[in-house]
Amino acid sequence: MQHLEGKVAFVTGAGSGIGLGIAQALAAAGVKVMLCDIEQAALDRAVEGLAATNADVAGVRADVSLKEELQKAADETIARFGKVHILVNNAGVGGGAEYGKWTDASWNWTIGVNLMSVVWGIEVFGPLIESHGEGGQIVSTASIAGLIAATGPSYNVTKYGVVALSEGLRVDLASRGIGVSVLCPGFIRTQIMDSRRNVPTRFGELEQQNEGDGAAEFVQLAREAIENGIDPRYVGELVREGIEGDWPYIFTDLQFEPLINERFANITAGFDRIRDRVPQR
Ligand SMILES: NC(=O)c1ccc[n+]([C@@H]2O[C@H](COP(=O)([O-])OP(=O)(O)OC[C@H]3O[C@@H](n4cnc5c(N)ncnc54)[C@H](O)[C@@H]3O)[C@@H](O)[C@H]2O)c1
Asked: What DSSP designation does 192 have?
């Protein structure tokens, strides 16, 4: 999508962090933005801040892990802006527990917010983007953890899922005039480490992150890396550029490139191990 001015975007998790950075960058490029978030107060602040820059924006509260709430948010977007060109599936939570500590609730929460919301976002907004024939773009926020299994099990699984969905749909949706990008951030300065502030009550009391074991040490290191991480507004500008250029992968930095290459090398070594046993055809 080369000309963003006047287009309409729907951005989830836009009340803070990366989603807000994306909403700000798009609004600065003249895009009309519907911000969506589960946190009403953060959403109101974000919309107010952007409206003060003369941007054409609005907000809708939704728990994106519930399909009917996403559908309602889409209806409100069409009622307010008439059409939608850009879907940014960004809401996500760092949650779940390590092996031996996980529960069904911790898996269901993470899968619901990080993965099913992306599936449903595409299901609900895809036809809306297609319907006007002006083309569009879908950007979904995965993570470097969508390419190397570097964090907790459920987070890794959901982020690999977002990468897989995006890679597959990029091929399927091209002929329908919709570009598909996946955002794989490194460490970004946001509130991701305090994701449990947003656990919906239907999941009951999710267990607190384990203290005094390996997980606590990992959490502390991640917290420090994120506190010193990249500015989310910069990530927003990268996403804006990624939409304009229809980038398949939007990375934020090079920190984890060697680890990703190591994974590819391990995969290649797996093929090498059986190479001389493969029957010649
Ligand atoms: N911060 C990082 O270092 C980092 C790295 C890789 C990927 N990510 C991904 O970036 C995305 C944004 O996270 P962030 O780092 O900006 O964290 P954040 O906590 O600052 O922002 C996430 C936003 O999503 C909203 N949200 C949470 N649950 C929701 C739900 N059920 N429905 C609607 N909105 C909901 C929150 O209220 C919040 O505004 C996530 O998908 C996360 O996994 C972050």
From this structure: G
User: What is the dotted CATH code of the domain comprising 8-254?
Assistant: 3.40.50.720
**Angstrom distance (rounded) from CA 26 to CA 127:** 22
Which helix (H) or strand (E) segment holds residue 180: the answer is strand 178-184
User: Exposed/middle/buried for 170, CB within 10 Å: 0-12, 13-18, 19+?
Assistant: middle
**pLDDT-derived band at 217, boundaries 50, 70, 90:** confident
38 C-beta closer than 6 A to ligand 1: yes
Angle, helices 40-51 vs 17-28, to 10°: value is 20
Kind and range of the H or E run holding 11: strand 8-12
85 touches 7 (CB < 8 A): yes
- Residue 177 CA, ligand 1 centroid: distance in Å: 28
What is the average pLDDT across 90-94? Answer: 97
Query: Which residues form the catalytic set?
Result: 155
Is pLDDT larger for residue 2 or for residue 253?
Answer: 253
Q: Where are the domains of the chain?
A: 8-254
The atom of ligand 1 lying closest to the CA of 21 is 16
| Contact yes or no for 39/13 (Cβ under 8 A) | no
Cβ-proximal residues to 213 (8 Å cutoff; 6+ apart), any chain: none
C-alpha 91 – ligand 1 centre gap (Å): 5
Pocket test for ligand 1, best of 11, 12, 18, 143 (most atoms within 8 A of CB): 18
Of 155, 163, 183, 162, give the one whose Cα is nearest residue 18: 183
